[in-house]
Amino acid sequence: MTLLTRRTALLAATAALALGTNPALAQGLPPLKAKQTYKVGFAQTESNNPWRIAQTQSMQDQAKKEGWQLVYTDAAGSAAKQVSDVNSMIAQKVDLIFLAPREEKPLIPAVMAAKKAGIPVILLDRSVDPSLAKPGVDYVTFIGSDFVDEGKRAAEALIKATNGKATIIELEGTTGSSPANDRKKGFDERVKAESGMKIVASQSGDFARDKGRQVAETLLQAHPDATAIYAHNDEMAMGAIAALEAAGKKPGKDVIIVSIDGTRDALQAIVDGKLLATVECNPKFGPKAFETAKRYAKGEKIEPWVVNTDRFFDASNAKQLITDAY
Ligand code: GZL
Q1: I want to staple 270 with a disulfide (CB 3.0 to 4.6 A). Which of 114, 191, 295, 318 is the partner?
Q2: Are the C-beta atoms of residues 207 and 233 closer than 8 Å to each other?
């Protein structure tokens, strides 16, 4: 984790904005000229889970609604390919790029190349290392959830359900991604304050269901005394449920699982008593992403972090909310 945490950088930029200095203009951030319609890029990380598919669908639906041309790319899980995807959008001279940087550091060159080419970038869902690129200076803004808070809320739910006593396996998201870094930070810091809560193992399942199952299988064998699993996303939580059942254990009884996202499968697992809870991370970025671009085109000062608020799903509300889930 860099010295200058993402939140500190964003709070500093917010303070600057509040003083009326628009860092965007002062720092030469490329403008978005007011036009009837735009040709915009959306550089997606991969399409290997319902969350990513829902995010892409939301962006494509909004582009259609606005009548804008959308240049869509899928990096298939490769940060290097995502950089070249952005470079191809620059070559196509798009007006603006929506980017979900797969990992915090490797996408910095893409953000800087777009700025140099005079194309504004809006970060969606994931952010970049704040010591290497800043909102209002190198890109317009970051639109996304507070991942540290998501991790903290997952920890609170687990502490409550286990009366502050658990031996925990942690399934981390994509190594180097901002959600993985911050969901770990939020959860681990909160759990550390509870003497009866112990994280005995923590390993990446890359936000993927099958990888999550494999890692859960290995860690459960190494730690048969585990009584809880914290998964950075629902796909890995579903993998962990499969691993537990394959080992003859009862998810939700022998091992309590808590997660993040709010997918349909996760809400069903809550209804079935296999998953304790999931903190929402809403993937439907389309409306807010395009609205923010229009605000920027009108010359509005855009806050450095456009925060998505997250609901919380557990046995009290999963059944009635499952119809809206993706
Ligand atoms: C979070 C997003 C994460 C989801 C995962 O904003 O980047 O990526 O939580 C997805 O399900 O793969």
Answers
A1: 318
A2: yes
The answer to whether the CB of 207 is under 6 A from ligand 1 is yes
Residues 6+ apart with CB under 8 A from 319: 267, 271
* CB of 58 sitting under 6 A from ligand 1: no
Digit-coded pLDDT (tens) for 44-89:
999 999 999 999 999 999 999 999 999 999 999 999 999 999 999 9
Q: Tell me the CATH number at 169.
A: 3.40.50.2300
Residue 117 lies in a domain: yes
Q: Tally Cβ neighbours within 10 Å of residue 1.
A: 11
User: 52 CB less than 6 Å from ligand 1?
Assistant: yes
Q: Which atom of ligand 1 is nearest to 100's Cα?
A: 7
Cβ of 209 below 6 Å from ligand 1: no
The whole-angstrom separation of Cα 280 and Cα 45 is: 20
Q: How far apart are CA 103 and CA 46, in angstroms?
A: 12
Q: Which two tokens stand for residue 181?
A: 């870094």
d(CA 128, CA 5): 11
10's CB contacts (< 8 A; 6+ apart) are 130, 135, 142, 304, 305
Q: Are residues 208 and 234 in the same domain?
A: yes
CB 185 within 8 A of CB 151: yes
Task: Determine contact, residues 237/212, Cβ cutoff 8 Å.
Answer: yes
Q: Which tokens belong to 85? A: 């995807």
**Could you tell me if the CB of 187 is within 6 A of ligand 1?**
no
- For the ranges 19-28, 89-98, 217-226, 301-310, the lowest mean pLDDT is seen at 19-28
**Residue 240, SS3?**
helix
Instruction: Give distance in angstroms: CA of 162 to centre of ligand 1.
Output: 26
DSSP state of 106: T
Tokens 């991790």: give the residue. Answer: 151
Tell whether 133 and 156 lie within a shared domain: no
